[in-house]
Design goal:
Chain B: It comes from Nelumbo nucifera. The structure holds 2 protein chains of 2 kinds. By secondary structure, chain A is α+β, with helices and mostly antiparallel strands. Chain A has helices at residues 34-38, 92-111, 118-141, 171-187, 215-229, 295-311; strands spanning 160-165, 192-197, 200-207, 238-240, 258-269, 276-287. Chain A is built from 6 helices and 6 strands. The longest helix of chain A has 24 residues, at 118-141. Chain B has 2 domains: 49-118; 126-280, 2-Layer Sandwich (Beta-Lactamase). Chain B has a 6-stranded antiparallel beta sheet, with helices on both faces. The longest helix of chain B has 32 residues, at 261-292. The chains are: A alpha+beta, B alpha+beta.
Chain lengths: 316, 293
C-alpha cells in the first residue's frame, strides 16, 4: 500500500473531497431545457436517481425535490450555469448587487438634469438597501443546511510539501501515523496536517518551513512552536473557520484560511505500580478554504484522534 | 470574504465531545510526558452569531429573500402611485431608471429565495432497528486487533448512522456488534452469523468480484436482503465493504440513504487499514502453526 510506505511523499490531488464541486443557482428563464445542462452536473453517484423535473416555479412546496443525502452531496437538481468552469453562480446575487448599486449611484449623480425629487430619493434608498442585502445573500446561504461548499481549494504559494516523522518509532506507530495523515489529507479539505502525540511529531502536507532545513531542524522548529503556544495541553477542540489576526500561529503555512485543532486525550495506567499518567497530544489540520470543516468532518477527525488515543500508550 | 469582513467575526461552533469508551489497557512500559506546560496560551475562537442564527432558523432564512423582494416590488409601485407618476416602465427619466434598477434587484432576491427553497434537503426520519444489542468478538484475537475493531465501531457509530456492524474475515465472524436480529431459537439472544451461507450468497460474490464498496441505500428494495438475516429486520441502509479479497464488513444504518459520500470514502479507507491489520495477524498465525508443525 502506497499510503503505508513512509519514505515516499504522497502526491495528492487538489480535488481532495469526494463529494461535490459545482453548485449552480437556477433562474427561471433557463430552466426549461433539461438536456442542455444535465450533462454539466458532475455525476459521481450513479446510484441516486437523477431528478429532471425541478423546474423552479411559483410553487413553494418542495416535497420530493431533493434528498436528505444531498446535505453534503452534489445535488442532482437542475441549475443554471454559464458553463464557465470555476465560476460560482451562487455568487450571482452579489455581483448583481454591486452592479446595480453602482448604476443607481451613477444615475443619481449623472442621470438627472433637474434636482432629484423625493420620490426618486425614496426609490434610490430602497434600491441601495436591496443591493446591500443581495451582497450579503451568498454569505448567508453558506450556513444553510444543504449548502455545498464549492471546491475552491487552491494551493497557496510559498509552501513546500514535506513528510517527516520523529525518530525511533515502532513500525506500528509509523504505520498508524502514515495512515492517519494520509486519510486526513485525502478525505477532508486539508492541505497540511500535524499530529503530535506525547513527544512524537508527524508533519505532512504543504508547510512553509525555513529553507534548506534538515529533518531534525524542522522537527525541532515545530516542536518549539508547539511548546510556545502550549498546544499539547489543549482540552477542547478549536475551530477557526476564518483566520485570526494574531500572529501567534506563525508555524502555519501561508495562505491558510481555516484550521482546526483536535486534542488527543488519554490516561494510561501502568500495570506494575498503578501510576496514572496523562499523555496528551493534538491533531492540527489546516485548509486553504474558509469554513472548511463541517460537523460530520469534525466527527471523523475526532475518530482519527481516538485512534491515537490507544497508540499513545504502546511502547514507543 | 468581503461580507465576512463586513461582519468581522471569528467563528466558533459548539463541538460535541466524543463519548469515551473503556478500551483494554496495555501494560507496556510508559513514556513519561516530558514537558509540564502552563496550559494553552493561544487565541480562542469567538462565537459567530450569524452562523448560529442561520442554522437555527433555516426555514425562515430560506424564504426571507422572497419576502424582501416581494415587499420591495410593492413598495416601488406604491412609491410611484403616491408621487403621482404614471407607472410606465421606460428609461426616459431618471426616476424610471432608478425604479427599474430596484425592480431588477427585487427580482434577483425573489429568485434566490426560490432557489434556496428548492434545494432544501428533505429530512428523513430515523428508524430504530428492532433487535438485541450484542458485542461478540472472536475469541482468539490479540489485543491490538480487538482495540482496532472496537475503535472502528466507535468511530462508525458516532460519525455515521451505523447501528450494526459485522465483520467476516477468512470465513470466520470476527466481530458482531451493535443491534442484531433476535435468534428464533433462544429469544433474547442475538442471532449467530452463518458465515458459510453468507460467503456462498450472491451479495458476497458480487462484492468480491467488483472489489469495491457496495451501497444499498434503501434495503427494502433489494430482494437479496434475505442473505443478511443477522441484521435487524428494519435496517434501512447497508454498506458492504470488502476487506481485501478475504473478508467483508457489513454496516447497517438506521436511515434511508443515511451514508453520505464522505462516509463512504472514510469507510473505504478504514477498511484498507483493517484489512492490513487482520492479514498481519493471520500471517503471524500461519507462521505460528507452521512453526508448531
Amino acid at each position: 500500500m502506497g499510503s503505508l510506505s513512509i519514505n515516499t511523499i504522497v502526491e495528492f490531488r487538489l480535488q481532495l473531497r469526494f463529494q461535490a464541486d459545482k453548485r449552480h443557482s437556477s433562474y427561471l428563464f433557463t430552466s426549461r431545457r433539461p438536456s442542455c445542462f444535465s450533462g454539466i452536473i458532475a455525476g459521481i453517484r450513479n446510484r441516486l436517481r437523477r431528478r429532471r423535473n425541478t423546474r423552479v416555479s411559483a410553487r413553494v412546496d418542495n416535497s420530493g425535490e431533493s434528498k436528505q443525502q444531498q446535505q453534503q452531496l452534489n445535488l442532482s437538481v437542475l441549475r443554471f450555469t454559464f458553463g464557465i468552469p470555476g465560476l460560482d453562480e451562487s455568487y450571482l446575487p452579489r455581483w448583481i448587487g454591486y452592479a446595480f448599486g453602482s448604476l443607481l449611484l451613477l444615475n443619481h449623480f449623472v442621470g438627472s438634469n433637474s434636482s432629484t425629487t423625493p420620490a426618486q430619493l425614496r426609490s434610490e434608498v430602497l434600491g441601495l438597501s436591496l443591493s446591500a442585502f443581495s451582497i450579503t445573500l451568498p454569505y448567508l446561504g453558506k450556513f444553510l443546511k444543504g449548502a455545498n461548499l464549492v471546491d475552491q481549494s487552491t494551493l497557496p504559494e510559498g509552501n513546500k510539501q514535506i513528510f517527516i516523522m520523529s525518530e525511533n518509532l515502532s513500525d506500528t506507530m509509523k504505520e498508524d501515523l502514515a495512515w492517519g495523515t494520509y486519510v486526513l489529507l485525502r478525505n477532508t479539505n486539508t492541505i497540511s496536517v500535524l499530529i503530535s502525540v506525547g513527544d512524537v511529531l508527524c508533519i505532512r502536507g504543504y508547510w512553509s518551513t525555513p529553507e534548506d532545513a534538515t529533518k531534525t531542524h524542522m522537527l525541532d522548529w515545530f516542536g518549539r512552536q508547539v511548546q510556545q503556544i502550549g498546544l499539547s495541553d489543549l482540552k477542547d477542540t478549536l475551530y477557526f473557520p476564518q483566520r485570526p489576526d494574531s500572529g501567534v500561529w506563525e508555524m502555519l503555512p501561508k495562505g491558510i484560511r481555516s484550521f482546526l485543532v483536535q486534542p488527543v486525550l488519554r490516561a494510561c495506567k501502568l500495570g506494575g505500580n498503578g501510576t496514572e499518567k496523562t499523555i496528551q497530544g493534538f491533531i492540527l489540520l489546516a485548509s486553504s478554504m474558509s469554513y472548511a470543516y463541517n460537523n460530520r468532518d469534525r466527527d471523523w477527525i475526532g475518530a482519527v484522534a481516538n485512534k491515537f488515543r490507544g497508540s499513545a500508550c504502546i511502547d514507543l | 470574504m468581503e461580507a465576512g469582513a463586513l461582519l468581522r467575526s471569528i467563528s466558533w461552533i459548539p463541538i460535541r465531545h466524543l463519548p469515551r469508551r473503556c478500551l483494554p489497557i496495555f501494560p507496556r512500559s510508559l513514556r513519561a510526558s516530558s514537558d509540564v506546560q502552563g496550559g494553552y496560551r493561544g487565541p480562542k475562537p469567538k462565537k459567530d452569531w450569524v452562523a448560529d442564527w442561520v442554522s437555527n432558523n433555516d426555514d425562515t432564512v430560506r424564504s426571507l429573500p422572497i419576502y424582501v423582494g416581494g415587499l420591495s416590488l410593492l413598495a416601488v409601485l406604491f412609491n410611484r402611485s403616491i408621487s403621482g407618476i404614471a407607472p410606465v416602465a421606460d428609461a426616459s427619466s431618471s426616476q424610471s431608471r432608478a425604479d427599474l434598477l430596484t425592480l431588477g434587484l427585487a427580482v434577483t432576491n425573489v429568485l434566490t429565495g426560490l432557489v434556496w427553497l428548492s434545494i432544501r434537503p428533505k429530512s428523513i426520519s430515523v428508524v430504530n432497528p428492532q433487535g438485541v444489542t450484542c458485542q461478540r468478538i472472536h475469541y482468539d484475537l490479540p489485543d491490538y486487533v480487538v482495540s482496532e475493531l472496537l475503535w472502528i465501531w466507535e468511530s462508525l457509530s458516532v460519525a455515521t448512522c451505523c447501528r450494526s456492524l459485522i465483520i467476516v474475515y477468512q470465513d470466520n465472524c470476527v466481530l458482531q456488534i451493535g443491534v442484531a436480529a433476535e435468534s428464533s431459537i433462544n429469544s433474547g439472544d442475538p442471532i449467530i452469523v452463518d458465515t458459510t451461507k453468507l460467503v456462498q450468497g450472491s451479495l458476497y460474490e458480487s462484492v468480491m468480484k467488483s472489489g469495491s464498496q457496495s451501497y444499498l441505500a434503501n434495503l427494502s428494495l433489494y430482494p437479496a436482503r434475505s442473505e443478511l438475516p443477522f441484521l435487524p429486520s428494519n435496517t434501512q441502509a447497508v454498506i458492504l465493504q470488502p476487506l481485501g479479497d478475504k473478508g467483508i464488513a457489513v454496516i447497517g444504518g438506521d436511515t434511508i440513504r443515511g451514508f453520505t459520500t464522505s462516509d463512504q470514502a472514510w469507510i473505504t479507507l478504514i477498511a484498507e487499514k483493517l484489512d492490513s491489520t487482520l492479514s498481519k495477524y493471520s500471517n503471524s498465525l500461519t507462521l505460528a502453526t507452521q512453526n508448531k508443525v
